[in-house]
Amino acid sequence: MTALRRFLPGGGWLSAYAFLYVVFLYLPVIFLPIFSINTAATPKFPLSGFTLKWYEDLPRTPALLDAAWNSLVVGVSASILATVFGILAARSITRYRYPGRRAINGLIMAPLVLPEVIVAISMLLVMLQLGLSLSLFTVVLGHVLVCIPYSMTVLTSGFEGFDRSLEEASADLGESAFGTFRRVTLPMVAPAIISSLLVCFTISLDEFIIAFFLTGTDATLPIYIWGQLRFASKLPGVLALGTLLLVASFLLMTVAEILRRRAARRTQNEGGLYA
């Protein structure tokens, strides 16, 4: 513990606890890329050798390419829709005061605290009652529901502290309300919007439970990985694919956080999802 205090900023048992918690949480993830370059099909130590053949085989798997395309379509669609709805909700919450504003905000954030299995089953029942066939479209609807709270949290950070005098100056110059929103407001919060798109895309890319209940015959990447885990011979390829998804998610979230902080600085407001 004494040694940890010397290396951790601030010292103390709380910093040591945070350090050990992060190590415990992410240490298993480190083994993923390690075993993905092992020549043996069984993930165990000591490693039998070094190879990249598991990565080389990924582009030659048609089912994987189809699942990747489906995830791309779902991710892009869900991120755009969730960000559009998030812009409207964040603008309303931060700009206007009306009865039930806090209750509405709480309902929008509810998917963050509700068990995903319950949300998925509820959406499945609703889709079936509406007569919708399970497909990528229903997966997009489910992912939009899950992504909106994340989008709204990021965008609220961009809208809060926004200098309303800029909008008033635009109105004084004869610009319409929509023109002011398009020419003044949106460019100011553009980094937050891009951050929201990246965050929502990452959430959609990694989402499994919602897709598991709402997908039809077109599998997304998480569903494809789940199916491959039934076969021991497919495990090395799953490890390689998981490593690529891990790296992609890390890069997207890093860029999203950089943009979120830039948006917060532009509006003189620090806070939000990752602060």
Q: Would you write up a description of this structure?
A:
The structure is a single chain. The chain has 275 residues and is mainly α. 73% of the residues lie in helices and 0% in strands. Helix 2 crosses helix 13, helix 7 (136-159) runs antiparallel to helix 10 and helix 10 (190-206) packs antiparallel against helix 13 (235-266). The longest helix has 34 residues, at 62-95. It is globular and about 70 Å long.
Kindly list the characteristics that best describe this protein.
275 residues, mainly alpha, 0% strand, globular, disordered C terminus
In short:
The chain has 275 residues and is mainly alpha-helical. Helices cover 73% and strands 0% of the residues.
What percent of residues are in strands?
under 5%
Q: What pattern of helices and strands is seen along the backbone?
A: HHHHHHHHHHHHH
Largest sheet: none
- Regions with little confidence, pLDDT below 50 for 5+ residues: 269-275
- Compute the average pLDDT: 78
* Secondary-structure-derived class: mainly alpha
> CA-to-CA gap between the ends?
27 Å
Assembly context of the chains: single chain
Portion of residues within helices:
over 70%
Shape: globular
List how many beta strands DSSP finds.
0
Compute the CA-based radius of gyration: 22 Å
Count helical runs.
Answer: 13
Topology:
Elements: H1 2-7, H2 12-36, H3 53-57, H4 62-95, H5 101-109, H6 116-129, H7 136-159, H8 164-172, H9 177-188, H10 190-206, H11 209-214, H12 221-228, H13 235-266
Helix pairs in contact: 2-13, 4-7, 4-10, 7-10, 7-13, 8-9, 10-13
